[in-house]
């Protein structure tokens, strides 16, 4: 029987819900900010991983910057205490209103991904009588060796500016009076677990930097993006080696005097702190295993359905003999499956199930398919201090 969670409290709460271990979150945030400080690196947290207000406040209060990919995320970052001068705005398709919003709020950088976008930013900035700080997101053609849906730095991907456009980009910046070129941006993918990939990225960045320098463009900022993977089989947070990660960039990047190195981790900062807690509705016999049908589904956590992602599944309330289960949700899709042939202690209606490492790309990717309502969010400090009791109305999110 697992004891990590406040089970007595959980029994009183309406399921499903997201639960965040605030101590683990704080510990991870403190570790990363202190390491980054040691190396002289700047970290912008990628809001897309988790944009809950209490989590963002914890992140901003520790001096992190924010990496946003929509005007809505820029607005959320501003509302949760990030300084505009610490907000960067990436994304392959920024709408005009989003560019205007970023400019009006004085964000620190637009990571731009195409010549046409540069022209539009230049034009809007000109209309407003301001200079737009920009970095060029480069497609470095480095394979992140991760799931192909979250691979972003190879030739076939829509992201970044490809080598055949670099000459044109330099000319475009040269003729654009309202662009203030700051640096180069890279992001090759997510859930990267082969650490050698980052060494390959560094050498490619060195070559690309050299090419730009030959063309009289020496970047002030090298933004290496995010992507550091976590170990989904170790949800208690002891799997992520941030030190080795930073060390690789420190050793392998050729830096010029005064250059800043920026990082944009999302998942690695928040994933391990979150769990999706669900109740077993029914058990049904299948052909080779049996189905444990939960009250949470792909609407709450789509990663297994979309990327065939593994999340550790635990029965929090049973220590009976282990059996095999296909752990599924209630949604009308066969892809609504959290895990096939999962070993669980014999599971019965009413048991509590934790789906671990769900703090990143869980809530932010949830949907209301089947008209399901957004589930509630609980944080370990409020659950323990508040003694929140009985069933709370659903659809009212604390985050
Ligand atoms: N910077 C940029 C420009 C990005 O596009 C991303 C993620 C990040 C930083 C943060 O990457 P991270 O450190 O979290 O790997 N929904 C997928 C992940 C999509 C990642 C998209 N971009 C998943 O659930 O695995």
Describe this structure in words.
The protein is of the alpha/beta class. It folds into 2 domains: 7-18 and 272-398, Lyase, Ornithine Decarboxylase, Chain A, domain 1; 23-271, Alanine racemase (TIM Barrel, Alpha-Beta Barrel), CATH 3.20.20. Helices cover 30% and strands 21% of the residues. The protein has helices at residues 7-12, 22-39, 53-61, 71-79, 96-104, 115-128, 166-175, 196-214, 242-252, 267-270, 303-307, 380-386, and strands at 17-20, 42-46, 65-68, 87-89, 109-112, 132-137, 179-185, 221-223, 260-263, 274-285, 290-294, 313-315, 322-328, 337-345, 352-355, 376-379. The strands form 2 sheets. Strands 1, 10, 11, 12, 13, 14, 15 and 16 form an 8-stranded mixed beta sheet that branches. Strand 3, helix 4 (71-79) and strand 4 (87-89) form a beta-alpha-beta unit. The longest helix has 19 residues, at 196-214. It starts with 6 loop residues before the first helix and ends in a 13-residue tail after the last helix. The relative contact order is 0.16. The model is unreliable at 386-399 (pLDDT under 50). Ligand LLP binds at residues 46, 48-49, 67, 90, 150, 187, 190-191, 225-228, 264-268, 303, 307, 361, 365.
């Amino acid at each position: 029987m697992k004891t990590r969670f406040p089970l007595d409290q959980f029994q009183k709460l309406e399921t499903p819900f997201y639960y965040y271990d605030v101590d683990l979150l704080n510990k991870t945030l403190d570790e990363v900010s202190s390491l980054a400080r040691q190396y002289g690196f700047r970290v912008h947290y990628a809001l897309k991983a988790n944009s809950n207000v209490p989590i963002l406040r914890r992140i901003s209060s520790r001096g992190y910057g924010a990496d946003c990919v929509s005007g809505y995320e820029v607005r959320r970052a501003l509302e949760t205490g990030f300084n505009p001068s610490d907000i960067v705005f990436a994304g392959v398709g920024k709408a005009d209103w989003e560019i205007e919003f970023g400019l009006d709020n004085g964000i620190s950088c637009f990571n731009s991904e195409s010549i046409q976008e540069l022209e539009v930013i230049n034009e809007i900035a000109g209309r407003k009588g301001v200079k737009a700080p920009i970095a060029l997101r480069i497609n470095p053609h480095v394979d992140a060796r991760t799931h192909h849906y979250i691979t972003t730095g190879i030739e076939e991907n829509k992201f970044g500016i490809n080598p055949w456009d670099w000459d044109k980009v330099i000319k475009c910046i040269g003729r654009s009076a309202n662009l203030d070129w700051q640096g180069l941006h890279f992001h090759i993918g997510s859930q990267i677990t082969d650490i050698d990939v980052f060494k390959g990225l560094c050498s490619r960045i060195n070559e690309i930097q050299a090419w730009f320098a030959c063309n009289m463009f020496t970047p002030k900022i090298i933004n290496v993006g995010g992507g550091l993977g976590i170990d989904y089989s170790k949800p208690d947070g002891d799997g992520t080696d941030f030190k080795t990660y930073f060390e690789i960039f420190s050793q392998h990047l050729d830096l010029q005097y005064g250059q800043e190195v920026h990082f944009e981790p999302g998942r690695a900062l928040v994933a391990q702190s979150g769990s999706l807690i669900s109740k077993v509705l029914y058990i049904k016999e299948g052909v080779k295993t049996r189905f444990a049908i939960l009250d949470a589904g792909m609407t709450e956590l789509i990663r297994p359905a979309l990327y065939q992602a593994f999340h550790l599944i635990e029965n929090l309330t049973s220590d009976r003999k282990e059996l095999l289960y296909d752990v599924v949700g209630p949604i009308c899709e066969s892809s609504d499956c959290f895990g096939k042939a999962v070993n669980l202690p014999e599971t019965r209606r009413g048991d509590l199930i934790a789906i671990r490492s769900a703090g990143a790309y869980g809530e932010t990717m949830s949907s209301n398919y089947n008209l399901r309502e957004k589930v509630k969010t609980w944080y370990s400090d409020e659950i323990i201090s508040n003694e929140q009791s009985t069933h709370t109305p659903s659809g009212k999110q604390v985050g």
